[in-house]
Amino acid sequence: MESVGVYGFCGCTAKNKMKCDSRREVTASETAPTSAYSSPARSLGDTGITPLSPSHIANDADPNVSEQPTFLVVVAIDFGTTSSGYAYSFTKEPECIHVMRRWEGGDPGVSNQKTPTTILLTPERKFHSFGYAARDFYHDLDPNEAKQWLYLEKFKMKLHTTGDLTMDTDLTAANGKKVKALEIFVYALQYFKEQALKELSDQAGSEFENSDVRWVITVPAIWKQPAKQFMRQAAYQAGLASPENSEQLIIALEPEAASIYCRKLRLYQMIELSKAAVNGYSSSDTVGAGFAQAKEHIRRNRQSRTFLVENVIGEIWSELEEGDKYVVVDSGGGTVDLTVHQIRLPEGHLKELYKATGGPYGSLGVDYEFEKLLCKIFGEDFIEQFKIKRPAAWVDLMIAFESRKRAAAPDRTNPLNITLPFSFIDYYKKFRGHSVEHALRKSNVDFVKWSSQGMLRMSPDAMNALFKPTIDSIIEHLRDLFQKPEVSTVKFLFLVGGFAEAPLLQQAVQAAFADKCRIIIPQDVGLTILKGAVLFGLDPAVIKVRRSPLTYGVGVLNRYVEGKHPPEKLLVKDGTRWCTDVFDKFISADQSVALGELVKRSYTPAKPSQLVIVINIYSSERDNVSFITDPGVKKCGTLRLDLTGTSGTSVPARREIQTLMQFGDTEIKATAVDIATSRSVKVGIDFLNY
C-alpha cells in the first residue's frame, strides 16, 4: 500500500479564530475508517487534502449576486401549520400587494383570507383538493367511505419535529395510512402554483408563464437546515423553480418577512400595547378595545384584497437610529420564532443580531391541551379509537373547538359552548355502554359541564387554562432572550403571526415586557408575514447579515503533534506520524455572515499524482469542533473534482485546490477549483441525503 506525504501551510486570519500549526504534513492511506464517517485519510479511494498557504477568508460577496434576473411578478406563499395563503405584487407596481382571491367555504367568525392547511387524496392516493374544499368534501363523505380517503392537516410540524428528516420521511393521514411527506408538500405547492398562475392569467387577460414569476416561500427561522432544504426540493418538484434557476425561488424566514413589513407600518396600521398605562386604560381594555377596532377595520376592508404599502418608512421605524435593536416574535400555529434585528442606516438594511430561537409553542399547543382534557374526561383509549374509526367527526370537533378558542379573552365571563358531533355521542355510548353526560359527571373535571343541546360547556377559566402552558413557554423563552447581552437594549417588540391575534397572548406579553420595550402589533397581524414575504421578493438585498446556524468545515489531514492530538488519530506510515479526521473550519455557528459572502480555503492533495480529489464537507451545531468524528458532526456534502485528462497541462508539484463556500438565502453552495487548469465542481450543501 502506497503512502504519500505533502507539506501544507495555513495562513488563517485571526478573524476566523482558526487554531492551526504553521506547517502541516498530510498523507493518504487505505486503512479502514475508525468512525461512522469515512476518514479523509483512511477511506478507500479518497485522497487526503491539507490546508495550503495562503489560505484565507474572503469577505467579498459574489459579484453575480447583484445581477438579479428580472421577473414580472413576485408571488409569496405563506405555508403555515394551520392556515396558508399567497399574495403577489407586480414588479412595476411594488406598492400594491394583492392577497389571493377569497377562498370558497370558511367558518363563522374566522377570517378566510387564508385557507386551512389541509389536503385530501383519493383512495388511489391522487390529489383531490386543498383547504376548505378538502375539509368540506371529507366532512360530507359517508363514514365508511371516509376511511379510504387520505386526509392530512397540520402536517408542516413534521418537518420541525423529525430529527432525521429525509426525502423518504412519512406522514400519517387521519385514517392511519402512511404517505410520503415530500409527495404531500409537492401537491400543496403545485396547488398554490396553479391557483396563483390562474389568478394572474385572469388579471392579465392572457396566459401567465411560470418563468415570469419569482416565488417566495416562508419557513420558520428556527427550522433546522434539513427542513429548509426539504421545502426547496419540494418546490423544485412542484415546478416553481429548478436547481438550474435556483434564484427564481427565495426561501424567506418568517420573522424576517414580518420585520420587513413592520418597517412600512404607519401609526394607523398598528396597535401599541405598551401604551396602556399612559392612556389610562387597564391592560385588558387596551387589548380588547384596540383589537376589536382593528378587526372591524379589517372586516370593512375584506372586500378589497389589495393593500397599499406606502413607499415610505413608517413613523415607528423612523424613530429607530443606527444600531437600534428590536425583537420580532412570530407566533404561528406550530412554532414561535424569536429574532433580534439591528437597523443599519442609511438604507435601513436589517442585520440579524442574535441567532433565531424559539420552539414548538404555536397555537397547536392549545389544541393538544384540549385533546388531553377530552382524554381525561372520556378516556385516552376512547379518543384514540374515535380518531381512527370516525376521522371526519374528529375533524368536525376540532373545527368547533377552533372557533371557540378564538373567542377566549382575559376578561370573558360567560361560558364557551363546544358542539360535540352526534357520532361522538353515539360512538361513546357504544364504546363505554353509558352516556357522555354520565362520563362528565363521573370525571373530576368540574369546570366542564354538559349542556342539554349536545354541547360541552367550558368556563372561561377552563379555556384560559388550555392556553396557559403554551403562553408560559413563550414568555419564559422571551425572558431568557432578554437576559442575553445583545438583547438588553431592545426598543421595540413586534408581535406577529396568527397566534398573535389571541388576546390572552397579547396580555401576557404586555404584562411581562411593557416596562422593557414598546410592544407593537400590526392590525392585519395574520397577514404580516405574507405581505413582508412579497416585499422581500421585490428586494431580497434588504436583509444584509444573518447568523450562521451551524459550524461548517472540511475533513483534512495534519502532521501528528504529541500531546495535542489523541492517540487514536495517529497513523504511522514509513516512519512519519499523521493525524487523521481533522475538522478544518470555514465558519462558526452564530458567526455573522453577509448574504452572498464567500469564504475561501486552499488545499493540496496528499498524493501529487492523484487525479480525483474528494473533499468532504461537515457541519455541527457546536462551535468548538476539532475532529469530524466529534459528537454531533454530520457530513453534509462531497465535492468530487475529477482532473483526469489534465496531465498534459503544466501542473505545479503542489497542486492548489481552492475551495469556496457561498452563503445564500437558506442555501449554501460549495465549489472546488483546480487553480492550474481552472477545472471546477459545484455542490449544494445537502442535509437530506447523507
Automatic annotation (TrEMBL):
Keywords: Acetylation, ATP-binding, Cytoplasm, Nucleotide-binding, Nucleus
Alphabetical list of SUPFAM superfamilies matching this protein: Actin-like ATPase domain
Ranges annotated as biased composition (Polar residues): 28-41
Coiled coil spans: none
Gene3D superfamilies listed in its UniProt record: 3.30.420.40, Actin, Chain A, domain 4
Broad class of where this protein is predominantly found: cytoplasm
GO molecular function, one term: ATP binding
Ranges for region Disordered: 22-63
Domain of life of the source: Eukaryota
InterPro entries documented for this protein: ATPase_NBD, HSPA12A_NBD
Entry's Gene Ontology cellular component terms: cytoplasm; nucleus
Subcellular compartments: Cytoplasm; Nucleus
SUBUNIT field: Interacts with SORL1 (via cytosolic C-terminus); this interaction affects SORL1 internalization and subcellular localization.
PANTHER family given in the database record: ALPHA KINASE/ELONGATION FACTOR 2 KINASE, HEAT SHOCK 70 KDA PROTEIN 12A
Function: Adapter protein for SORL1, but not SORT1. Delays SORL1 internalization and affects SORL1 subcellular localization.
Family: Belongs to the heat shock protein 70 family.
Name of the protein this chain belongs to: Heat shock 70 kDa protein 12A
Organism (species): Rhinolophus ferrumequinum (Greater horseshoe bat)
